[in-house]
């Protein structure tokens, strides 16, 4: 996602909130990394530095294969029943913010298996499960194409969502169809299932 924003002529500046330094951003004047340890609190000093941002892409998290057992209830994995409930609650809470913030537009995105095998900026993770899954991706692309989303097209779509300024009616007319649910009432609120992501990304 960061590579997409860095290379895009539509994005003038990128602010990254991260718990640790971001190697990909080093030496790039377009990117400012803010080291932030507590994502449950945002001090005024940090918000001041983020002033002027027109979009936010929330991509916080780690692979479920890296979740430690003692944190399983606080950081549920995709194979646990809690994951779906927590994700659903988060999506609903984001949509509810629209009533308090008339200018806020929400895109909740639900990709399936994210395929980074053809990404030249892949981090080279040594997680065994990840390596096994990467070897299985060519087969997944063949037998379950609707369940796989390459990182490049996904990042491009997320950038477009973050920069979207058209009216709700125009967006609805342009994107409605399989895999897309648009909330009635209020400002723009969209849920993109993986089928919708692939369709809008031209896959």
In a nutshell, what does this entry contain?
It is built from 7 helices and 7 strands, in the order H-E-E-H-H-E-E-H-E-H-H-E-E-H. It is globular.
The chain-level mean pLDDT equals 83
Unreliable stretches (pLDDT < 50, length at least 5) are 69-74
State the separation between the terminal residues, measured CA to CA: 18 Å
- Total DSSP E strands: 7
| Element-level helix/strand string | HEEHHEEHEHHEEH
Largest sheet features = 3 strands, mixed
Supply Rg: 18 Å
Give the proportion of residues in helices. 25-40%
Helix vs. strand class: alpha/beta
Helix tally? 7
Task: Kindly estimate the percentage of residues that lie in beta strands according to DSSP.
Answer: 5-15%
Shape: globular
Strand order of the largest sheet: 3-7-6
What would the keywords be for this entry?
about 200 residues; 3-stranded mixed sheet; two-stranded parallel sheet; 7 strands; about 35% helix
Tell me what the structure shows.
The two termini are 18 Å apart. The longest helix has 16 residues, at 81-96. The strands form 3 sheets. Strands 3-7-6 form a 3-stranded mixed beta sheet. A hairpin with a 6-residue loop joins strand 6 and strand 7 (189-192). The protein is an alpha/beta fold and 203 residues long. The chain is globular. Residues 69-74 have low confidence and may be disordered. It contains 7 helices and 7 strands. It has helices at 2-7, 44-49, 81-96, 128-143, 151-163, 168-175, 194-200, and strands spanning 14-18, 31-35, 106-109, 113-115, 148-150, 180-182, 189-192.
């Amino acid at each position: 996602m960061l590579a997409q924003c860095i290379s895009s002529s539509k994005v003038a500046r990128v602010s990254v909130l991260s718990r640790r330094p971001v190697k990909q951003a080093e030496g790039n004047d377009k990117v400012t990394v803010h080291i932030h340890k507590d994502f449950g609190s945002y001090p005024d000093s940090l918000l001041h530095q983020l002033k002027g941002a027109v979009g936010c892409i929330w991509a916080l998290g780690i692979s479920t294969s890296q979740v430690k057992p003692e944190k399983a209830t606080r950081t549920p994995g995709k194979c646990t029943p809690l994951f779906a409930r927590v994700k659903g609650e988060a999506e609903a809470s984001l949509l509810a913010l629209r009533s308090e913030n008339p200018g806020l537009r929400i895109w909740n995105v639900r990709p399936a298996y994210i395929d980074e095998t053809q990404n030249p900026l892949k981090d080279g993770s040594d997680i065994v499960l990840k390596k096994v899954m990467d070897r299985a991706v060519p087969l997944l692309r063949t037998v379950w194409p609707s369940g796989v989303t390459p990182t490049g097209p996904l990042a491009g779509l997320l950038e477009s969502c973050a920069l979207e300024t058209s009216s709700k009616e125009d967006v609805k007319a342009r994107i409605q169809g399989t895999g897309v649910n648009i909330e009635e009432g209020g400002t723009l609120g969209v849920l993109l299932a993986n089928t919708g992501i692939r369709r809008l990304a031209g896959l």
